[in-house]
Design brief:
By secondary structure, this protein is α+β, with helices and mostly antiparallel strands. 52% of the residues lie in helices and 16% in strands. Strands 1-2-3 form a 3-stranded antiparallel β-sheet.
């Protein structure tokens, strides 16, 4: 017997809801795995530095054009590398947040 003011979660309605929640969890887990497999390529310095990061937020590769390597200006090269890597990480994070938002529907869940 359900208490007054509280929904009855028993019976077929409750089972259907549980199945929907389980499917949503499976779909979210699958989407998260797919997002972690994606790669994001970003550049800095007009293409002088290219960074590739994956959805697990790991740096996969850095490519430097020869003209980016100036032994007299290592600081600039370091800044370009940081900019490219950070932009790749930011892109991966924003893409994942946008994709997971489809599942959470704006509920403010930390995904």
């Amino acid at each position: 017997m359900a208490r007054r003011g509280m929904p009855n979660m028993g019976g077929m309605g409750g089972m259907n809801m549980m199945k929907q929640v389980q499917k949503l969890q499976q779909d979210m887990a699958r989407a998260q795995e797919e997002l972690e497999q994606r790669t994001y390529e970003t550049t800095a310095g007009g293409g002088a530095v290219t960074a590739v990061v994956n959805g697990a937020r790991q740096l996969e590769s850095i490519t430097l054009k020869p003209e980016a390597v100036d032994p007299d200006d290592i600081d600039m090269l370091q800044d370009l590398i940081l900019a490219a890597v950070n932009e790749g990480l930011r892109t991966a994070e924003e893409t994942q947040a946008r994709e997971m938002q489809k599942f959470t529907g704006g509920l403010g869940l930390p995904f």
